[in-house]
Specification:
By secondary structure, this protein is of the alpha/beta class. Helices cover 38% and strands 21% of the residues. Strands 1, 2, 3, 4, 5, 6, 7, 8 and 9 form a nine-stranded mixed β-sheet that branches. α2 runs parallel beside α5. The longest helix is centred in the middle third of the chain and has 22 residues.
Length: 321
């Protein structure tokens, strides 16, 4: 393929916002304020809840639909084991995106990290925490973050806060050095650096949003303190993200995306560790050898890929039996 030079074009982006703080600091309320404004008058808001459906208390003011990850099984009332596994967050995200929701609130993402079925629990169960635990689970965490960033809708994430400690050095009576834990305030319950994935990260404290990081500095400044954020903040963010509307995917692109997700779900633990698993699957399914992956697909491509995924599913079923 020949390389070409094209004018740089700014595409309209979807909002990615992280709100973190202690309980009752205003995270859920502010997330719903922003999501409702971002979705627009005709857009629907979906909430993925690990907080036992706490957003329902605000449904009168902010109408929304909910997927409650913490909900007990409908049949026997027993809580679902591993309720907050990253794969369950991804499944909920997929349901809302495919149903056409314009804004999604994840309340809260902390449970995917430190909850029942979360990353830290999975790492802790490994025999060798560093080589096996993190080696297997870091790609799963990355896949969840990538799924959030790739969603074709606005996403507002809430994250819980915890007390943070650092080791402070002091001199003992005998002159030797000792260390004691020192409380240095609060930190998000999430992998360090998660906030940098977002366009806007704010710490909530008594309904005041403290802007800690902003990728849209011209519109929303780092260090700003916004008391009881309103839809005006969402409109400022939309102004910053405005541009040429992203082209809608074709029917074939939509079908191919579904087939790739079906392929991934056959063995998520394996494919999460392979950065270019989509490319490998497409080359195998479409018999592309070393050719470039097409940016668009024909109906024949979709049919061939569906046969490939079906054969892989059949192989897996045969092995299981």
């Amino acid at each position: 393929n020949m390389l070409t030079i094209k004018p740089a074009q700014k595409f309209r982006q979807f909002a990615r916002v992280c709100l973190w703080g202690t309980p009752k600091s205003g995270k859920t309320h502010t997330a719903l304020v922003l999501a409702t404004a971002l979705a627009g008058e005709s857009g629907r808001v979906g909430v993925i809840s690990s907080e036992y459906g706490s957003s329902k208390l605000l449904s009168g003011e902010f109408p929304h639909d909910i997927i409650d990850l913490s909900e007990a099984d409908d049949h026997d009332g027993i809580p679902i084991k591993g309720a907050f596994a990253p794969q369950r967050y991804e499944q909920a995200l997929k349901l809302f995106v495919e149903a056409g929701y314009k804004a999604i609130v994840i309340d809260s993402l902390s449970h995917s990290w430190a909850g029942d079925g979360g990353i830290l629990e999975a790492v802790g169960k490994s025999k060798n925490t560093y080589s096996d635990g993190w080696g297997e689970n870091t790609p799963i965490y990355n896949h969840l973050v990538d799924s959030i960033l790739a969603a074709r809708c606005h996403v507002v994430v809430t994250v819980r806060a915890k007390e943070a400690y650092e080791q402070e050095e002091y001199i003992k009576r005998d002159g030797s050095r000792g260390h004691t834990p020192k409380n240095v305030g609060q930190a998000p319950v999430m992998r360090k650096g998660f906030g940098f994935e977002m366009q806007l990260t704010m710490r909530m404290d008594s309904m005041i949003a403290h802007v800690e990081a902003s990728a849209v500095e011209k519109y929303i400044h780092k260090g700003e303190e916004i008391e009881k954020p309103t839809s005006e903040l969402a409109y400022r963010l939309l102004d910053a993200l405005d541009g040429v509307e992203l082209p809608e995917p074709t029917e074939q692109q939509k079908e191919m995306k579904k087939l790739l997700q079906d392929f991934y779900s056959l063995s998520p633990a394996t494919y999460a560790r392979i950065a270019n698993w989509e490319e490998i699957a497409l080359k195998k399914g479409l018999d592309l050898a070393d050719d470039l992956i097409p940016s668009d697909y024909t109906s024949d491509d979709v049919h061939r890929m569906s046969l490939y995924v079906a054969s892989k599913r059949k192989d897996k079923t045969a092995k299981a039996s």
